Amino acid sequence: MLQSPLTQTPLQRALVWLGLACLAANPLSAAKQDGEEILRHTLSLYGSAGYISCDVQIQEEVEVYVNSIEFERGFETERRTLVHTASLQYTRPDLLFARWNIVDGSQQIARTGSISTAEDIYILAHQYPQKPELTEEPDQYENLNQAIDYSEFSSFRFTAVLRDFFDPSFHGDLLANDIELVGTRKLGKLRCHVLKIEGYKSMTLWIDRKNYALCRIDYATDYGTLQGEAAWLDWKLNQAQLSLDPQEARIQRRINLYRDPPEIRPDSCTIVFQGQNIQP
């Protein structure tokens, strides 16, 4: 039972003030505790939902060449934001439909990808509207994680990043990082908690203060980040081998993908949620 400050002994009051002083002297520790608590709320929201759907923009900052008016200066570069689009519908435990459109420097669709579910088969397909001769037969996988793993880079990590939230078996990977609440900011009309995640992952989360829904995710995709994730997965692989965990093959597959990623990819991306539907 809580005591009134008026009935506490001098020693109890001293301990309370000492605790407050420690928090004031070490705000970073408090920010980490707050950040982890907020993230746990978000993971619980997505990890327990029976149905999730969302439409997003995947924003990518790139350097593009532009023609210069002055001949002697030749070509110049400028920073542009490419806006890719994607959508996802997930019904627990393993029914998924996802689609993404990747654009080129002129904002024309260069590649589309999709994951669809047909009975017990997951179909990963890619098409190239500007170069239809590059289109190949869709790949088929026996489980959802395989389809997501092999779609990770073609979707600029969109499918794998969202899996970290809707699949509880991946929650521990996020919580294993340093998580810090860096403040609150406005995103459009929403007021968001902003969490900085650092460790084997590099990610910034913008989370709605009212309902803990994801509003924006900034994440790294560069080679160094991938090698950090591969090192973490190496440790998980060793643990899985010691415990004869059936997830060993899946972990090894992701290590192989990260150690030899596609040569062409952005260094970082931002997912901005345009609309979401989360149901129990």
Overall description:
There is one protein chain. The protein has 7 helices and 11 strands. It has helices spanning 10-25, 27-48, 144-151, 158-166, 171-175, 223-242, 248-259, and strands spanning 51-67, 75-91, 95-103, 109-118, 121-127, 139-141, 178-187, 190-198, 202-208, 214-220, 268-279. An 11-stranded antiparallel β-sheet has the order 6-5-4-3-2-1-11-10-9-8-7, with helices on one face. The longest helix is centred in the N-terminal third of the chain and has 22 residues, at 27-48.
Descriptive keywords:
globular, alpha+beta, disordered N terminus, 11 strands, 33% helix, eleven-stranded antiparallel β-sheet, 280 residues
Overall pLDDT score: 85
Roughly how many Å apart are the termini?
Answer: 35 Å
Ranges where pLDDT stays below 50 over 5 or more residues in a row are 1-6, 68-73
Q: Note the main sheet.
A: 11 strands, antiparallel
Tertiary shape: globular
Number of helices: 7
> How many runs of DSSP E, i.e. beta strands?
11
Assign a percent range to the helix content.
25-40%
Order the strands across the largest sheet as they lie in space: 6-5-4-3-2-1-11-10-9-8-7
Q: Give Rg in angstroms.
A: 23 Å
Structural class of the secondary structure composition?
Answer: alpha+beta
> Could you spell the SSE succession in H and E letters?
HHEEEEEEHHHEEEEHHE
Portion in beta strands: 35-45%
